[in-house]
Design goal:
The chain is of the alpha/beta class and 616 residues long. The protein has a four-stranded mixed beta sheet. A three-stranded mixed beta sheet has the order 1-3-2, with helices on both faces. Strands 5-10-7 form a three-stranded mixed beta sheet. The radius of gyration is 27 Å and the shape is globular. It starts with a helix and ends with a helix.
């Protein structure tokens, strides 16, 4: 996955001598370095192949997974496709076989001096800085199979020591910014997560059209592409794609936020420069420093820039680079850039700029949103709160736009109330809404129908499906009752001093049977988790309440209860219907993706306990 990301960026339709690609390996793994070394060799064949046939996409895994019969009309292309496929498979097999061994053989270690940087004492949490220039773009000998120059390719693993806080992704990005300023010092920085790849070879040129525009270009700090995914199901089972947000865009409220990947930054703005009308200047020639020092000298001098102690008593992580001490370092950094007077551009071309991997299990999706919503609430409660820090610096509508996301975690309170309280009151015969024939029902009906009709129409307008919209409604309810609730709880505990900030990376690798169920749009539960316990308990509370009310009306013939409790009964029925996949996972499915038996017993017990308290 990482290697395909690197190769897709190296193959941009842009002069190779002006491109420099850096891989930040925070784990400091010699296996990752070996994979990058293999990719550097493969690039000598892959880049000419992409140029010759103008391929899209330029990720080898994505392009070579297509059927070669599509190229039968062009015998030359078909022949070269087969040859390139064989080269890629050979490279992949070598990398996978070495990865399965879990170590680098002595034979491979002799292939490159960079392997000397690793020793038996090195671990992912305790190692020195490693900087290796695998392809020196300033070297006349660094050419592909057709004699054309190759982009500079650099491996970086910043120093990590147990006694130093490494500041997660933000710290890694800041080390990259410093090292790249020494080696190539390009005026524009693109950052892409390694679970994504470039899907459009024109993305660089498109972004430069904004940033180098004669009239407005100097105002923009970054160009943000939407976050899209190549493995989404037809009906987007877990609502991963923010379909309406992606299609409508964010420019109208003052520009998009920086979302951590697929973003072209102006280096000066990212490093803390304030916007002013005099900031127009000539663009520096990229790679201008490569000719001054040799690759070996640069490697040694850059190790200092990636050391743990370099940032001490500096503004890095405060006024320079990405912000520290926040789980959504990208969002808070983008907002701070705008508070310094810069603007941003949202660009959503017909051919998506970048494609990533969407979570394939429910728990992965919920944990991802827990981290996001916790970070957003942390942002809102910090000194960088949009409503205060952005006062008179950015438009009010932009402050409010950020605040909507910042308050995601607090939405759990209202959702938990509407999911649990009306159903429990239904059991106890307590009416919370007007009677069904009362005129006071009309406002409730209008809000409910108008809101969902507009939402459905908007979703369908942007090529969604009715089933996709229903999945979207379901997953937002799941997020608000589980992920956002735990985000709110953890943030509260952190403020009170009972917890510390953590950074949980969303797992994207899954077993084949999990992938198969995901493609069939069968919801994956699998592992026990407190999030799934709450989800299953709430589903059972609504099922018990619904069944008890039906029994009361049909068996006990309490018809009068229908008039006063009709709205609660309808709401409870909708909640039962939306939770059908949960009931299937609890009682009817026998595959590994079903709810664990222990979780089923626990949720039934907790639901019965809650219902008993409500009734008595």
């Amino acid at each position: 996955m990482v290697i395909n990301t690197v190769l897709s960026v190296m193959a941009y339709n842009y002069p190779s001598q002006n491109l420099s690609v850096y891989l930040s390996d925070d784990g400091g793994s010699d296996l990752t370095f070996y994979a990058l070394l293999e990719a550097s060799r493969f690039s000598k064949h892959w880049l000419p192949f992409c140029r010759k046939f103008r391929l899209e996409p330029r990720s080898p895994a994505a392009y070579l997974s297509t059927n070669h019969e599509l190229h039968d009309s062009n015998p030359l292309m078909a022949q070269e496709w087969l040859s390139m496929k064989a080269l890629y498979e050979d490279m992949r097999n070598r990398i996978e076989s070495t990865t399965r061994m879990g170590r680098i053989s002595e034979e491979i270690r002799k292939e490159h001096k960079g392997f000397r940087e690793w020793n038996s004492a090195s671990t992912r949490h305790d190692h020195h800085s490693i900087v290796q220039i695998l392809i020196d773009g300033g070297d006349p000998k660094a050419v592909d199979s057709e004699g054309q120059p190759l982009p500079t390719l650099v491996y970086l693993s910043r120093e990590k020591r147990p006694q130093y806080h490494h500041n997660f992704k933000a710290g890694s990005m800041n080390a990259l910014i410093r090292v790249s300023s020494k080696i190539s010092n390009g005026s524009i920085i693109l950052n892409v997560d390694c679970d994504m790849y470039s899907n459009n070879s024109e993305s660089v040129r498109d972004s430069l059209c904004f940033l180098m525009d004669d009239e407005k270009g100097h105002e923009f700090a970054f160009v943000q592409f939407p976050q899209c995914y190549y493995n989404l199901t037809r009906n987007d089972l877990y609502g991963t794609c923010f379909r309406v947000i992606n299609e409508v865009g964010l420019d109208s409220n003052g520009g998009p936020c920086y979302i951590g990947s697929g973003c072209f930054h102006r280096r000066d703005a990212l490093c803390g420069m304030k916007y002013n009308k005099e900031c127009q200047k000539e663009w520096r020639r990229e790679n201008e420093k490569m000719g001054r020092e040799s690759a070996s000298v640069l490697e040694e001098s850059c190790k200092v820039l990636a050391s743990c102690s370099y940032e001490e008593n500096t503004q890095w992580g405060k006024e320079m680079g990405l912000k520290y001490d926040c789980a959504v370092e990208d969002i808070i950094t983008g907002f701070s850039i705008k508070c310094r007077g810069w603007k941003s551009i949202y660009f959503n071309p017909e051919r998506k700029g970048f494609l990533g991997v969407a979570p394939t299990t429910l728990l992965q999706s919920l944990l991802q949103h827990k981290r996001w919503s916790e970070g957003h609430l942390q942002f809102f409660l910090s000194s960088h709160c949009p409503l205060f820090h952005g006062y008179k610096k950015v438009p009010l509508k932009l402050q409010l736009s950020y605040s909507v996301y910042n308050l995601w975690a607090l939405f759990c309170l209202a959702m938990l109330y509407y999911v649990a309280v009306p159903s429990l009151c239904l059991l106890g015969g307590i009416s919370l809404f007007p009677e069904i024939w009362s005129l006071w029902v009309l406002p409730f009906a209008y809000v409910f129908i108008a809101k969902h009709a507009y939402s459905l129409g908007e979703f369908l307008w942007f090529d969604g499906t009715i089933q996709g919209w229903w999945n979207d409604q379901r997953i937002w309810m799941f997020r608000r009752t589980t992920a956002y609730f735990f985000a709110f709880l953890d943030t509260t505990l952190r403020i009170l001093g009972f917890a510390e900030t953590t950074f949980a990376v969303t797992a994207k690798v899954c077993d084949e049977d999990v992938s198969q169920r995901y493609e069939q749009e069968v919801m994956e539960f699998g592992s026990p988790s407190p999030l799934l316990t709450i989800l299953a308990t709430l589903a059972m509370v609504n099922l018990f309440s619904f069944a008890a009310f039906v029994k009361r009306v049909i068996v006990d013939i309490q018809i009068k209860a229908v008039e006063s409790l009709a709205l609660q009964f309808i709401l409870c029925g909708l909640l039962v219907f939306i939770n059908l996949p949960v009931y299937q996972g609890l009682f009817f499915r026998k595959d590994k993706g079903a709810m664990p038996a222990s979780l089923t017993y626990k949720s039934v017990f907790l639901a019965l306990l809650a219902c008993s308290i409500a009734m008595y």
